[in-house]
Amino acid sequence: MRQEKTAEPAVAIEPAYYEVGYWKRWSRVYDSLVKLFFLPFGGELRFRDNFVDFASPREGEQVLDACCGTGTVTALVARRVGGSGRVIGIDLSAEMIARARRKATNLPVIFKRASCDRLPFPEDTFDRSLVSFGLHELPRAIRQNSLKEIYRTLKPGGSLFIFDYHLPEGLWPRLAIKSFVKFFEEEAAYRLMLEDRLPAEIGDAGFIIRERRWPLAGMFQMLRVQKPGQVRVDG
Asked: What phi and psi, each to the nearest 5 degrees, are found at residue 210?
């Protein structure tokens, strides 16, 4: 199944927090900087692969990759779900999506320009959803609404998998990740990590936290959270 190559309509209303020019400039260097950042940790692909292993998408599933950026995780997931499944990647940046499409040639992927807090999908659409280093980019109110929207569009019993920053216990890892996030990210990302807000916000959206891991000396976190209900098995 080839990826859909339809033209993307503009988002009806640009969210007030979203800076078009900033993300247009950032899209040009994003992949190169991410590769450089993950080099000391065994490389970006290994890091992303570990997250996809954690999410364990299955053949034939319908999967949402929210805040998909340039689509590295989206393409990895698409290879797992196969031709009988489908992955939808959403992002607000048209430039990021254009780069993502080039990574997903001949894969079962559709990319849409959309905001996470206003997902253009019906209730109970997806078996799994993923957000990789996307939630920290959102202001608190937008992030909370985005979690509720992901909850709405997941099937009963479906799971959301989150990968983001975390403040560890160890002195040197703690100093390293605090310095990095403070310097390279927005204040919203720093406060989210510093105050460990994600678990409470996830619960407020209705999810149940099923698993939480802290890779790389606790500087990052991976969460598996579930929408209550019985998982439906087709066929």
From this structure: -100, -30
161 part of a folded domain: yes
Distance CA 132, CA 51 (A): 8
Q: Do the domain assignments include residue 11?
A: no
205 phi, psi to nearest 5 deg = -80, -10
- Interatomic CA distance for residues 62 and 80, integer angstroms: 11
Statement: the pTM of the whole predicted model exceeds 0.85? yes
Per DSSP, which regions of the chain are E strands?
62-66, 86-91, 109-113, 126-132, 154-165, 208-213, 220-226
Beta carbons within 10 angstroms of residue 19's beta carbon: 13
Length of the chain: 235
C-alpha–C-alpha distance, residues 232 and 47, integer Å: 31
Number of domains comprising the chain:
1
CATH of the domain at 86: 3.40.50.150
Report the first-to-last Cα separation within the chain, whole angstroms.
21
The answer to whether 129 and 161 are in contact (CB under 8 A) is: yes
Residue 167 DSSP label = -
Tell me the pLDDT tens digit for each residue of 179-207.
Answer: 989 888 888 889 999 999 999 999 999 99
